[in-house]
Design brief:
single chain; about 150 residues; mainly alpha; 8 helices; about 70% helix; about 0% strand
Length: about 150
Amino acid sequence: MTTDPTMTRIGQGVELHHHQGQREAARDLFAQIWDDIGGEQGDPLHVCVLAHSMADVQDDVHEELMWDLRALAAADLITDERVAEAGVPLSVAGLYPSLHLNLCECYRKLGDLDRAREHLQQARDGIGVLGDDDYGRLIKGGLEQVAGQLGETI
């Protein structure tokens, strides 16, 4: 369980969106947190997780893509030590399959199937770091679904 107050707040927004169906309230909370952390200048872990979550509550796929690209860029700046310090039960490598899955889906929606397939492959390449737990199964299931939509298999 996370011990980082900002990660806890982001988790509250995820809860609003995924478990309470309050997409707009989640987006508002994420926007407030974004301002509080200093936007892209904030702690890369916060930027990554917040941008990744903010992408999920966008109504426009171009906005979703922008947030997902921010998340991916921030992930490259995170260390495993920082993740552990925040109490996140993943390594940095464990973040990438989900980030690439979301980018794959954005590019698929936009009709850029070449880029979608590139991110699908990057997600596949990193999937081995995920465990056989709820999170791992969620990401693997998402990869299978989008691969099917692209006419491929995992």
